[in-house]
Description:
172 residues
Amino acid sequence: MRVSRFRSVLWPAGAALASASIVLAISSLMAPSAVAEGGAPFAVVTDKTVQTECGACHMAYPAGMLPTRSWQAIMDKLDDHFGENAALDAKTTKHITDYLVANAADAGGRGARQLRGVKPDQTPLRITELPWWIREHRGEVSPSAFKDPRVKSKANCVACHRDAAKGYFGDD
Ligand code: HEC
Ligand code: HEC
């Protein structure tokens, strides 16, 4: 119900891609809350240190969204983190790395879906570059919506997914 209302706002009357109404109020950019629908949520970060340190500039992304090797690569160069210095002391860095690795997409044989299309020798540093992420947004979100001043970036999940912090990103 809420999904179809949302979709009809984004793509009115079954309009295919070139909708002119894509400069939208942020409320209509919002993906619907899935709480009531019981959509499969991503496990949220439960570790306080990770929440604090990795949630300071953007949401603390669910560990299950990237494979072990990606988290290791990110944590290995926090001093050069997407143009920011996010360096932490060695003890904190190890604590966070251990948590992310233990809960990574490929930990314990999980997460085949998130890693589909990623070659074993590729180490993506962005969730937003993964084939599953691109697939979930293609046709659902106009490329210009990511540049909306209220969104600014694909990485700003919470601009559109209001329940992202609870692990909910949608319901289908
Ligand atoms: C000082 C600010 C800052 C801190 C602290 C920080 N980040 Fe980031 N992070 C950024 C910026 C800036 C980007 C790029 C955002 C964009 O492209 O809009 C980013 C992007 C990312 C991305 C890629 C998002 C995408 O596009 O899919 C991941 C993953 C990530 N950070 C993980 C972490 C982790 C893990 C920590 C904790 C160790 C952390 N970040 C702490 C600033 C920070
Ligand atoms: C400009 C708005 C926007 C941004 C920013 C955005 N998304 Fe989305 N996302 C959507 C829309 C719209 C959908 C499709 C709605 C749906 O399927 O419920 C979607 C779908 C998804 C889905 C599939 C949900 C499902 O179960 O069908 C996931 C998972 C997801 N997004 C994760 C993310 C993550 C993680 C980020 C940040 C790294 C992000 N999104 C950033 C708008 C956005």
